[in-house]
Amino acid sequence: MILSDAEIQWWLVEELMGISPRPEEDQWQPSSVDLRLGNKFTKYRAADKRVVSTREGVPPDQVNTIEADSLILYPGDFVLAHTVERVRIPPSLVAVVDGRSSLGRLGVMVHVTAGYIDPGFEGQITLELFNVGSLGVELFAGDRVCQIRFHKMSSPAKKPYAGKYQGDTGAVASRIERDHGGQQE
């Protein structure tokens, strides 16, 4: 069951889940809440014939994170960003993040593959921005770029999320090496 705006508001008032800062009036949709773009952007450096090992992860010298009020996403660009809002998902809900259609109509994909937010997750959401369009698009920190919707589960999760992205702040690069016991931060 997808929660309506009224149900989401009830869950927030009862502090059974969290969105901080609290959504403004223009962020509310009938069954979702728009989330805003943060001001930290992470891009992998282009390196000719460079390979990233899923066992070793991305070398630190291949990651560039900047803080900026805006970012131009050119055709073919892939950038990690984050939401302004920090979310707290309880064990009895699952959340899904999708891009807003207005950006999609410009060719900007906001959450390329990982839009599923596990029960128990808490933190800012890292967004995978990819421009498949033919025009560069300037995105501004504070813009409503995605929407989050909440699904009630049939029962609370026995093992809520406590993984490698728990508590994230900012645009967090891949930590895939941790899947295989690789380097720790």
Task: Describe what you observe in this structure.
Helix content is 7%, strand content 37%. It has a five-stranded antiparallel β-sheet. A four-stranded antiparallel β-sheet has the order 1-7-11-9, with no helix packed on it. Strand 2 and strand 3 form a beta hairpin. The chain has 185 residues and is mainly beta. The chain has one domain (5-46, 59-172): Deoxyuridine 5'-Triphosphate Nucleotidohydrolase, Chain A (Distorted Sandwich), CATH 2.70.40.10. The model has no long low-confidence stretch (mean pLDDT 91). 25% of the residues are buried.
Outline of the structure:
With 185 residues, this protein is mostly beta strands.
